[in-house]
What does this fold into?
Amino acid sequence: MKLGKNFTPHRIAFYVGLVVVWQIIAMIGIWPSNVFPSPYEVAEDLVYTAMDGSLFYGVAMSMWRLVVGLAIAIGGGIILGVFMARVEFVNQTVGSLVLGLQSIPSIAWVPLAILWYGLNDAGIIFVVAIGAIFAVTINTYTGVKNIDPHFIEAARNMGAKGSQLVTAVLLPAAFPYMISGFKQGWAFAWRGVIGAELLFAYLGLGHLLYAARSLTDVSQVIAIMLVIMGIGLVVDGVIFKRLENKVMSRWGLR
It folds into this structure.
């Protein structure tokens, strides 16, 4: 039985080794268990949160907010990126603003989201969307700008214009760049949703982290962090990596 590319023997051995070293350090007792819990204690807390349903509910809430916010970011980023690439006035005005806003961390939008939307889902989704949209915008812009002008001219000579030119020519040609934008947007969105939930203290995985911190339960904090990391690895490896490889192969870039 062959292991997937994300689960090579060397990688599995590395993580097993990390857990063994972790367990040894915990057994030595350099730090008390309430500061440095063992892997067993972390796993125990993970099982407990899974059995009472709070873990699955938290994952479901966080993923729902992520999907909605990321969908808004992708839709808005594609539209804005195409306009920036095709309309010079938009590029010179809105484009400079996008570059500036991209430097603002997602978490910095949380106070504004609370003031505008209150402590609810809409505020968290806003943070997710605003954190991801600029990466999608810039990569879409780059992709459209890098299309050979002769290719666009040939499409126009064949009758493609307006929305048809965008959907049938520009977006397919720029798609390899857009995939990178989606991937970056996902990473920003995932950090944004967890950060927003931490400060909103409103359900989700971030809320579980907040609750564990309030109870000074270090093992639960680590357990939830491992879940967040695991989801990130799975989404990146199973969805985006495969999609990226497929697109790059189809476009002859790999």
Observations:
- The longest helix spans residues 163-200.
- The chain has a mean pLDDT of 84.
- The chain has ten helices and no strands.
- Residues 33 and 183 are 38 Å apart (CA to CA).
